[in-house]
Amino acid sequence: MPLVHEIDYGTPASKSTETVTLTIDGLQVTVPAGTSVMRASMEAGIQVPKLCATDMVDAFGSCRLCLVEVEGRNGTPASCTTPCAPGMVVHTQTERLKQIRKGVMELYISDHPLDCLTCAANGDCELQDMAGAVGLRDVRYGYEGDNHVKTRNNGDINAKWMPKDESNPYFTYDPSKCIVCSRCVRACEEVQGTFALTIEGRGFDSRVSPGAHEHFLESECVSCGACVQACPTATLTEKSVIAIGQPEHSAVTTCAYCGVGCSFKAEMRGEELVRMVPYKDGKANRGHSCVKGRFAYGYATHKDRILNPMMREKITDPWREVTWEEALAHVSSEFRRLQYQYGKDSIGGITSSRCTNEETFLVQKLIRAGFGNNNVDTCARVCHSPTGYGLGQAFGTSAGTQDFDSVEHSDVIMVIGANPSAAHPVFASRMKKRIRQGAKLIVLDPRETETVNSVHARADYHLPLKPGTNVAVITALAHVIVTEGLFDEAFIRERCDWSEFEDWAAFVAEPQHSPEETEKFTGVAADLVRGAARLYARGGNGAIYYGLGVTEHSQGSTTVMAIANLAMATGNIGRPGVGVNPLRGQNNVQGSCDMGSFPHELPGYRHVSDDATRDTFEKLWGVKLDNEPGLRIPNMLDAAVDGSFKGIYIQGEDILQSDPDTKHVSAGLAAMECVVVHDLFLNETANYAHVFLPGSTFLEKDGTFTNAERRINRVRKVMSPKNGLADWEVTQKLAQAMGLPWNYSHPSEIMDEIAATTPSFASVSYELLEKMGSVQWPCNEKFPEGSPIMHVGGFVRGKGKFIRTEYVATDERTGPRFPLLLTTGRILSQYNVGAQTRRTENIAWHAEDRLEIHPHDAEQRGIKDGDWVRLASRAGETTLRAFITERVSPGVVYTTFHHPETQANVITTDFSDWATNCPEYKVTAVQVAPSNGPSEWQQDYEDLSRQSRRIAGKLEAAE
C-alpha cells in the first residue's frame, strides 16, 4: 500500500453557505464565500507555491512566496490572506511572479544549511520542494554556511552551528534549519491551545523558542506534535524519522488510547513503524493529536511483550512456554472440568475495552454460547456503567448525545468530574478554542485542574465541591433554574412528560435543595451555584461534558440522571452545541458496552430476559441462551472467595491494578483454579494466572473501535502480529477447542454478524466505513449514514423522563482516624494502569504516582514537598511521595493510579454505585503521615510480582 497523501490547501475551509465565482488562470471556480485565493486555486488543481501557509492554521502571509496578480488591483497580494471576490480574475503564474518568487526563495536558501543529502527531512521538506517549484538554480548571497544560525561572539562569526535541543524524548529542535515561518507557533496556539512557543529575537537572530525556557522538556510544551507536523523543514523532526528514514507506505487507523478515537496515518518502512501522523480527515480529531497517540506507540515492540503462550500448575511455579494448541486445549479441558465439577455458572469472562468491537463481540459470544451462561462483564463496570443506566433511564439510550464537532456551536460548556486537558486532550483543545472564541466555561471539580485554569481558557465558574456531593450540587443548580423560572417550558411540554416534570420541579424546589442549604456540606458557595445555574440556563447553547468524577461514586447513576434532568429542563438536547456527553476513558469502552459485555444485556443494550432478542441470537448461533443475568465482576470475585466461581478468561484487562479494594481482588483470583489472562504483558492480574495467552496490539489487526461520540472507526493492520495471532483469532481458536463451529476468516465477517443481530448497527459494514470514513450509531435503515446528534425531534424512549435525585451521603465517612478524603484521576502523559505508557518515553514526564496535598494539611502533618508519606484507609495502606499544591482544597488529597508500585487501589474501598456496582474510587477516607519506606503490602506484593514473572528457560539462561 502506498503512502496516504493528504492535500494541504494552505488555509482552512470556509464554513459559509454562500458562494462566489471567480477566474483563476483562465478556469472558472466557485467556492464558499470567505475562501482564500490560495485554497480556491488548490481546489481547482492549481498549486501556488507556499511556505508559511498550511490549512491547519489561519493564514499568516509572511513568506511572500504565494503572491498572485489580480486584474484591476495594484501589487502582488499574498494568495493565502486574499479572500475570493465575485468576478475576480487571478493569475498565479506570470513572469513578474516568477522573478519575485525566485528572489524570495534565494534569500531563504542563502540563510539555510545546504546539507540536504544527509538531512532527515530529505524527501519530505517543503523548502526543498519550493526551491524546485520556483526553479531556483543559483544563490548569489553570502557564502555557504555564513548565516544567522551561527553563534556570534562579540560580533565575530563563530563557525559553529547552534546546538540542537534533544531534550524532548520524541523530537529534535534544530535552530539552524528554522525559516521563521511561525507555523509551529501558530499550531501551538490555534490547534493545541498551549501557547508554549514564540519567535525569539529579531532579524537574523530570530528563531523559534519554547517560551522562556531553554529546552523543550522544561517548557510548557505538552508534546502533542502539532508543531512537528506543521514544520515545513527539519527544524522540528521526529527522532524516529532521524533513526529510521522516511516512510514508504502508510494506512489510516485509530488510536488505541482514550475514548476520543483519533485517526492516524501509521507511516511505515516495511513492517517498522516510523511515525504516527494525525489524519486530517479524522472526524474525531480533525488532524490533531496528543503525546500518547502521536508518540507513545513504542510499547508495541517493547522487550517486555510476551510472544508465546505460557502455562503453570500453581501461581508459585515459574511459567513455561507452550504451543498455542497445548495452551488452548488445556484451557478448554480445565473450563469443562470446572463446569462438570462445580456447575455451569462456575466460570466466566471479562471483555476488553482495549480490543476491537469484533473481538469483544466474540468474547461475549464465547461465554454465552460456549460457557452457557451470562457471566460476562467489562471494565465499564468500574468506570461508565452508571452512564449506561442513567442515560438509558432518562433518554432511552446508553450513550452521549453529540459528536465532538458540536462543541464548536456551544455557548456555555459545563464540565463535571472530568479534566479533559489531562484525560482527553484532543477534545480539550477543541473545547478551549471555542472558549477563546467567547464560550463560557463552568467546572465542577474538587481540584483546580488544568481545565479550570489554562492559558487563555479559564473557567467563569469553578465549583470546588467536596468529593461525594455531586448529586446535592447538581440538584442545587436545578433548584435555581426551577425557582427562578429559567426552565424551557415549551421544550418540556413538547418533548417530556409534563406531570413528571412537575413532580421533579416540586422536589428540587424544596428549601433543603437551595444553594444556601447545600453549601453547608458541599463546600460550594451559594453565589457560585446561583451564578453557574443562571449562566447555563440563560447563556445560549449549553453543553455538559462529564467523566469518572461523576460515575465513580455510590450515587453515580443518580448523578447521571441529575445531569440529564438539567439538560431537559433547559431544552439543551437535540441540536448542535448542547447535549449530555460522557467522556469515555478507554479507546473502546463505548464499543465494549455496545457489544453486549454486561451480564444482563445482549449486544445493543437488550436485556437477556427478552425472548425475541434471545431468539435472534439462538437461531444464528444454534444454541439455547440463558435468560437470567450473570455475575458482575464484583460478584465473580465474591463467588470465588465463597468457593463457587472457579475459572475466568480475562482479555486485555488488568483488574488487579484497576479495580477497587485490591486485597479483595487478589483474594478472589487466588481462590480460582484456572485464571486465563490474554494480554500483551505479564500484568498485575497475571500474578495470579495459570495460563497466559499473548495478545496483539492495534497495529497488528483489523477491526473497529467506537469512541465516546458513538463513532465507529476502522482499525487497520499495518504489521504482522508478533505473537502470531490477532486477538479475535485467539478467541476463535479457544471457541473451536471448546467445540464451537466458528470459522470467521476476517473481522469484516464478524461485523456483518453484529449488523445482522444489533439494530443500532444494522447498516454498518466495512464497505460503508471505507466509503464514509466513519459513522456514528445508530446506523440503520432510518439513519443510513449514522447519527451525529441523538434525540433530534424526540427522545429514543419517546418522552424524556425526569427523575427525582435524592442526595444520599456515602457510607464512606471521614473521622478522627481518617480525616481526609482521597480522590483519584489521570495525568496527561500516562494512561490508565500504565501498562502501555510506562513502556514508552512518556515516563520522562511522570515516573511515579504522587500524592497531591494542600499546604495546610501538609504543614499539620510535618510533610514537605517530595517527602515519602504513608497513605492509609480502612481498606489498606501504601506509600508514595507528596506533592504540595493548592490545586486541591484543604481536607482533600489526590493521586493517580498509573504505577503498580503504588497500588492506589489498596486504599479504595468496596463501596459502589447503588444501581451498577461501579466502585466509589472518588471518595475514600484516609490519613496521611510521614513514612520511612514501602508498606508491608507493597513489600509483599513486590516479592509476589518478582516470583510470578519467572519464565522457565529464560530463568535458567539468566542464572
Automatic annotation (TrEMBL):
Q: Where is the 4Fe-4S ferredoxin-type domain?
A: 169-200, 212-241
Coiled-coil intervals, chain numbering: none
Entry keywords, A to Z = 2Fe-2S, 4Fe-4S, Iron, Iron-sulfur, Metal-binding, Oxidoreductase, Repeat
Q: Where is the 4Fe-4S Mo/W bis-MGD-type domain?
A: 248-304
Q: What is this protein called?
A: Formate dehydrogenase subunit alpha
A molecular function GO annotation: molybdopterin cofactor binding
Q: Which SMART domains does the record match to this protein? A: Molybdop_Fe4S4, NADH-G_4Fe-4S_3
Where is the 2Fe-2S ferredoxin-type domain positioned along the sequence? 18-96
The stretch of residues making up the signal peptide is: none
PANTHER family tied to this protein: FORMATE DEHYDROGENASE H, RESPIRATORY NITRATE REDUCTASE
Occurrences of domain 4Fe-4S His(Cys)3-ligated-type (ranges): 96-135
Q: Tell me, which GO biological process terms does this entry list? A: formate metabolic process; respiratory electron transport chain
GO cellular component entries: membrane; oxidoreductase complex
Pfam families (alphabetical) = Fer2_4 (PF13510), Fer4_7 (PF12838), Molybdop_Fe4S4 (PF04879), Molybdopterin (PF00384), Molydop_binding (PF01568), NADH-G_4Fe-4S_3 (PF10588)
Instruction: Tell me which family the UniProt entry assigns to this protein.
Output: Belongs to the complex I 75 kDa subunit family. In the C-terminal section; belongs to the prokaryotic molybdopterin-containing oxidoreductase family.
